[in-house]
Design brief:
Radius of gyration: 24 Å
Distance between the termini: 66 Å
Largest sheet: 8 strands, antiparallel
Strand content: 15-25%
Length: 517
């Protein structure tokens, strides 16, 4: 008799789950609302079912009878659908109630409050509350963080710094919520960490602890993570203890848990969220296995199958080497061509290169984790070598944009929305003295001649600027890339060219050159 694992989701994040099921001797029955998801071809059986439709999932599971060995998901936000179906089939899982607690941020915060688990003060905001804000009847102090109550990937999540930003942020969060509700929380300012764990027979086994790198205020975009963490052992112990208390408060008992936790100076750890699933963002399926030699997804799947994980006697599985994930991003526009893939994957210590975009796609400066353009993963025995490998690979990738695009023009002109002051940031910020020096140099050389080397024309004021752009490129690296990609070009207005470089990096100056054709 063939036995199947029912896997929720057919995206890239579910590839390790499909692999684990097959390695354990089971067939993979994969469901997703998208029949064109990237992992559909690798399923033994695929069915098009919306992961929100818990009744349809439960009906499918119950109809399989003894052919169904377990139900599982990783990297999706549908652990409650897993528990709902698994409970009906008598399969190992977190209770449906606990999974809901870990899926709805309001329920989650209520559980934490009832059990004295450190987390920010909050209140729920529905469409009635939205109407009060629209009428100017809401009394609130800032800063706050606004999020959908039931989404992932930082969609609809942002920092609200003043009243002008509140209403647009609330509308956006409610739009991204499946239930039409948002949560408004106190802002936590501190270092952030991601933790994965198995939860089995009353024990929490830590299976990944990473530093998260969050940027681009007022949004919370994770541009990468690093493991093992560089946090001191004493602070790490505080964070893990807080995480375990949060797991208990939510009622999670049988499966996995993933936490995002901040450490606030003077206050200690505070929980951002705990989900009843393994982490997405390449941590559970890529960086942790690379750094630890543990197939975490397989160990987690064993619990869903009623088996005993090999690591069940351990308090923690630690990293024995260093692994870094780094994202690459774009300014707004439409992709004309992509360069540097071969150089990126050839970067020492780079293990993987994942693209989320292709030529012809419309891109934007990211406001959430779904809007990034791709990711690089590196691994080495040495932290700095792994880090340099990942960042060097990202720096090689160039997304050339189509010319004459309003979104690109607006970005390069510094246009910003009233509720997004300071966003998006530019590639290379200059202080007033540097701008003065650059302007004086440009007066002496107001033109960059046709087909001239940009590296040779680089002003001294910019040569001394040591910062890097969003994709880890220095100014000197940027102009070297331009010379490599675009050695034949028209005459440039130097003032406009250097201004565009400072704002838009390599994409900006390539766009400027292309717009003159």
């Amino acid at each position: 008799m063939e036995e199947y694992v029912l896997i929720l989701g057919a995206g890239l994040m579910q590839r390790p789950s499909i692999e684990a099921a097959k390695e354990l001797g089971y067939k993979a029955l994969v469901i997703d609302a998208n029949p064109n998801a990237v992992c559909v071809p690798f399923a033994d059986c695929f069915m098009q079912i919306d992961l929100k439709d818990k009744e349809a999932i439960a009906d499918l599971a119950m109809g399989m009878g003894k052919n169904l060995a377990g139900i599982f998901t990783a990297g999706t936000d549908f652990s409650a659908s897993v528990s709902y179906a698994a409970e009906k089939c008598g399969l190992p899982c977190h209770t449906y109630e606990a999974a809901l607690n870990a899926s709805n941020k309001v329920l989650m915060r209520q559980c934490f409050k009832e059990h004295n688990v450190p987390s920010p003060d909050f209140f729920e905001a529905d469409k009635d509350y939205l109407a009060k804000v629209e009428q100017g009847k809401a009394d609130i102090k800032f800063p706050k963080v606004v999020k959908p109550v039931d989404n992932m990937g930082a969609r609809g999540c942002r920092l609200v710094r003043n009243e002008e930003e509140f209403l647009p942020a609330l509308r956006e969060a409610i739009k991204y919520s499946r239930t039409g509700k948002a949560i408004v929380e106190d802002y936590m300012d501190g270092l952030e960490f991601s933790i994965d764990a198995l939860v089995f027979r009353g024990k929490v086994i830590i299976t990944g602890f990473a530093d998260r790198h969050i940027y681009y205020s007022p949004y919370f975009v994770e541009v990468g993570h690093s493991m093992p963490s560089r946090i001191p052992d004493g602070i790490k112990a505080e964070i893990v203890d807080c995480f375990k208390k949060g797991i208990k408060a939510l009622g999670l008992t049988t499966g996995v848990a993933k936490g995002d936790i901040k450490y606030i100076l003077g206050k200690g750890p505070m929980i951002g969220e705990i989900a009843a699933r393994l982490s997405g963002g390449y941590m559970s399926g890529w960086t942790f296995p690379y750094s630890s030699d543990l197939n975490l997804t397989k160990e987690a799947l064993k619990i869903a199958l009623g088996k005993i994980p090999e690591i069940s006697i351990l308090p923690e599985v630690t990293s024995i080497r260093h692994s870094h994930e780094r994202a690459f991003i774009s300014i707004p526009g439409k992709i004309k061509a992509i360069y540097g893939q071969e150089n990126a994957i050839a970067s020492p210590f780079v293990r993987d290169l994942f693209f989320r975009v292709k030529a012809g796609d419309t891109v934007d400066f990211p406001r959430n984790n779904v809007e990034k353009c791709g990711n690089v993963i590196s691994v080495s025995e040495d932290r700095e070598l792994a880090l340099h490998g990942a960042e060097s690979a990202v720096a090689e990738i160039v997304l050339r944009l189509e010319p004459n695009n309003k979104a690109t023009d607006d970005f390069l002109a510094g246009v910003e929305l009233p509720d997004e002051k300071g966003f998006p940031c530019g590639a290379f910020g200059l202080i007033d003295f540097e701008i003065y020096r650059l302007n004086e140099e440009v007066k002496k050389s107001p033109v960059i001649k046709e087909n001239a080397s940009i590296a040779e024309a680089l002003p001294e004021a910019l040569k001394e600027r040591m910062c890097r752009d969003w994709n880890y490129r220095s100014i000197e690296k940027t102009v070297a890339l331009f010379d490599r990609i675009c050695p034949v070009h028209k005459e440039f207005d130097a003032e406009k060219f250097w201004k565009v470089l400072i704002r838009g990096g390599i994409q900006g100056i390539l766009y400027y050159a292309d717009s003159l054709e």
